Amino acid sequence: MIVRTLLAALALSLSGAMASAQSIDLSPEQPGRPRAERNEAAIRLLSPNAKLAKEGVFTVAIAAGRLPFSAYATDTKTVIGSDPDIARLVADSLGLTLDIVPVAWADWPLGLASGKYDAVISNVTVTEQRKEKFDFSTYRKDELGFYAKADSSLSIKEPKDVAGLRVIVGASTNQEQILLRWNQQNVAQGLKPVDIQYYDDDVVRGLAIQSGRADAYLGPNALSAFEAAKDGKTKLVGTFSGGWPLVAEIAVTTRKGAGLAEAITQAINTQIQNGNYAKVLARWNLVPEAIERSQTNPPGLPKT
């Protein structure tokens, strides 16, 4: 209950500030970034056999690509975003200096397994297949979101709510597969089919929503939420798990058996309780994806 109250209060107090492009700080200094105190409870959970890539340093790989997750600051070399902020809180908690290593997404599994870095914090979803090689400490829900024009009255909570709507979705994505399953279910129940639309260009997609050619867009909630906060032209009208009908979560990823996961989980839970975690999510407009408690190696998405 305490965590829910903290998240709700911060969402209300900071959502207004996030609503304008001017409030989004892209500087390398990131003066609004929360910092954490050394957490002895977390440090005690570090395995005696844990070996860091560099002594006294928490080396974290991040695929810098797009905000709010991670991107380069105005100096074109400092990585900023929600994932670097989480990395900073964990490093602070463990009494370590943070070293962020920008990597290509495809390269992180091999680099992590080889000990090139200690963790990957880059919007990685927990899956059963990945758990065979890596440990996980969850820190955010994997959420998809429906976004509509800012003055829309739509509310999408279940499959029947999309019946008859014109919905934009990315081709060959998990959200497309979910929307197709919803549509199949609706048609089988005698409801109107969804008019599914595809646009390769984000600008064209936005124009389709604003002009009324489409009713809603379905995509990764975090990316759409960040855009909505910048320009105020769209709003969230429904969210559900990226693993629908299963729950999916994003996690700090470490080598299997490296002896770091339990300590990282404790560090995250302390930041959830003291409110720093909520501040990170609020400053990047990610409050809807908040978790109430970090878990080590929870059930992941099943193998396909």
Q: Measured on Cα atoms, how large is the radius of gyration?
A: 20 Å
Sum up the overall morphology in one term.
Answer: globular
Overall average residue pLDDT: 91
Poorly predicted ranges: 7-22
Give the CA-CA distance, first to last residue: 36 Å
Number of strands: 12
Count of individual helical segments: 9
Structural class: alpha/beta
Description:
This protein has about 300 residues and is α/β, with parallel strands linked by helices. Helices cover about 30% and strands about 20% of the residues. The strands form three sheets. A five-stranded mixed sheet has the order 4-1-5-12-6. A hairpin with a 6-residue loop joins strand 2 (about 70) and strand 3 (about 80). Helix 3 crosses helix 8 (about 260-275) and helix 3 (about 80-95) packs antiparallel against helix 9. The chain is globular, with a radius of gyration of 20 Å. The two termini are about 35 Å apart. The model is unreliable at about 5-20 (pLDDT under 50).
